[in-house]
Amino acid sequence: MAYDGPVNILLVDDHPDNLLALEAVLGDLNCNLVKCLSGAEALRCLLKDEFAVILLDVQMPEMDGFETARLIKSRKKTQETPIIFISATSKDAEHFFTGYEAGAIDYMLKPFVPQILRAKIEGFVRLYVGSKTLQLQAELLQRQTAELERGNLELMQTTYQLTKTQALTRAIQETSTDTMMTFDENGVILTVNPAVAAMFGYREDEVLGHPVTMLIPCFEGGAYRLGGMEGAAAAAAGEAGCTAGGASDESDAAGFGAPAGERMQLHPVRKDGSRFPAEIQIGMATIDEERIYACTVSDMTERRRFERELMAAKETAEVAARAKTNFLAMVSHEIRTPMNGVLGMTGLLLDTELDESQREYGEIIRKSGEALLSVINDILDYAKIESGKLEVEQLPFKLPLLIAETFDIFTAKSMQSRLSLSYEADPALPELLVGDEIKLRQVLVNLIGNAFKFTPEGSISVSSRLLGMAGQTARIEFVVTDTGVGIPADKLPLLFQPFSQVDTSLARQYEGTGLGLAICKNLVELMGGTIGVSSVVGEGTTFRFIVPMTTWLTPHGEAAADSTGGDRPASPPRGSFAAAEEDAAASSQAPSGFGEAGLADARADLRGGAAAAVLVADDNEINQKLTLTLLHKLGIAADVASNGSEAVERAGRRAYDLILMDMRMPVMDGLEATRRVLASAPAGQAPVVVAMTANVLPSDRERCLEAGMADFLAKPIQFDAVKRVLKRYGIEPERKQTSR
């Protein structure tokens, strides 16, 4: 490799004639001659280009040649560039010394001999070209060296990985319980691992060099080499090989021709001639244009036996579980039915005139019936849990209200037993949560009831606190603590087992089925939580359970605060019917765009002063009576429809001003009924449909609005809410004429 780039020569002289003379001498050297009239100009050229040699005049204005040379030599990039001074000054030795001291390699006097100057310049050019060539060769050598080092490193890594892989492969082969073998295209066994002795009964030297069909007769005819339809044909040809060692097996024939790597179910032959079920996998590799096959044989005898036993045990367990669940459900139901009659008739009996003894006997019957009914309820709950028929609901609820309702159940018992019952709430807890309120209340009722049972005196305390938040999910811990008799440490593991009790003796003091805590554990785990217990004999017991709950967000995406502390949101949670109802009441505009008074007057004008026609569509008789009673108090008589279909039929016969529509009804729900009523109403005479529902999720509200409902009332229906809706849409018992 030789340098073929440009060669630059720098000529510096303040007289243009001298530069022309130098150019005439050096013009045919095939070099780039760069001419400068001053030292400063020369320095600027040196910043841009690289030069083979510099011819520098000594006497120049502003900056002489000596100063220019010193500056050139002070720069690292140009300090090796040769400088030749050409001067017309005297021949004093002082000038020569100054020139060499400044870094010049030669000093020539004017007039110079052209041939001598040319020869010197040619020599420096050759040195420059040679230096650049060596530099290029050094760079090339350096790159090649780096590539060799990189290749050597990769080779060492590959060698290490190969050695490691070989060691791992050898370790796997020597310790594996599966037989691993390789054989060539003719089926001759090349290698085999020690497992062949335990599986087939052969020593390694007894199989090496022998055909693979000695171990797997179904490979006769080279079936291991084929795939697809050819393999199926080979299967038929190889079936004779399968029968040579014993009875034929259809599954062997089905395994022939399987693609490489796919597992086949075959029956190889041991040294003693016996067959065994095996799973065989074959792979193929080409080494030096020769196909080598690798085969792994897994003995399936124990696995097949285990699978059969496992399936039998599974079926037995499922039959037993179904029988137990069905028995519990059937017996509980059959007992519960007459018990309802017993309790009902006992209640009627106690309402009659009875003497003191008769009333005492009746109270005993009622209390015994309630105790038995409680047992039956536990059995039914457990049967539902065991059968997997219990599902977790996700509905919004208020935690303080749930606690208050739970405490109401035990108010009378607390006063009767003179036990203190208290509750402490974490101020950080959100007031509104989304979860299964019913199951959470049932767990609390069971735990508090259990505390009352085992606490003769003292107190029972309940607390709740926020353990942490993950997005919208809050981890809430509930703690129920009593000062009762306590539980021995060795009995704690039995607490959450069904039908188990701490005291199982014939003289046990406390009654019960032993299902309450088992039901609590199942319900908590069903909600995605955990439950635990700690106790000290004679001091009391503490039950803790943690459940995840979703927080109900405010319009700004913040969790609603608990009523026990912290700031509450300025408005109810968005998406709830109650919130929308309050928004509509607070707004000065009705949904249709009229002012509240204007809309009322407009509808009254359309009726011409007649009383409003109202329809109540609800399938629940109690809700019907409640709604009619509220309307009656406002002086409005209304018709009733028991389902959506009946509501559509009545709306087709009479033009109603307002329809209070339940969302969930049999035959036809309120959403479909609303669509049909509005679609069939004459133009300009469509009734106002107001939803009545207990569902407060945003999706339910959107579905009502999409169906065409104009407003909504949240259950339980409040008198003021009904009055507000009637006023909003101008529904009055009688329109009084007023002058305008």
Mind explaining what this structure looks like?
By secondary structure, this protein is of the alpha/beta class. Helix content is 46%, strand content 18%. It has 21 helices and 22 strands. The strands form 4 sheets. Strands 11, 12, 13, 14, 15, 16 and 17 form a 7-stranded mixed beta sheet that branches. Strands 2-1-3-4-5 form a 5-stranded parallel beta sheet, with helices on both faces. A 5-stranded antiparallel beta sheet has the order 7-6-10-9-8. It is elongated, with a radius of gyration of 51 Å. The model is unreliable at 227-258, 504-509, 561-599 and 735-740 (pLDDT under 50).
Ordered list of secondary-structure elements with their pairings:
Elements: E1 8-12, H1 16-26, E2 32-36, H2 39-48, E3 53-57, H3 65-74, E4 83-87, H4 93-101, E5 106-109, H5 114-175, E6 179-184, E7 189-192, H6 195-200, H7 204-207, H8 228-243, H9 250-255, E8 263-266, E9 278-287, E10 290-299, H10 301-350, H11 356-387, E11 395-398, H12 399-417, E12 420-425, E13 432-435, H13 437-453, E14 459-470, E15 473-482, H14 516-526, E16 530-536, E17 540-551, H15 577-586, H16 596-607, E18 614-617, H17 621-633, E19 638-641, H18 644-653, E20 658-662, H19 670-680, E21 688-693, H20 698-707, E22 711-714, H21 719-728
Parallel strand pairs: 1-2, 1-3, 3-4, 4-5, 12-14, 18-19, 18-20, 20-21, 21-22
Antiparallel strand pairs: 6-7, 6-10, 8-9, 9-10, 11-13, 13-17, 14-15, 15-17, 16-17
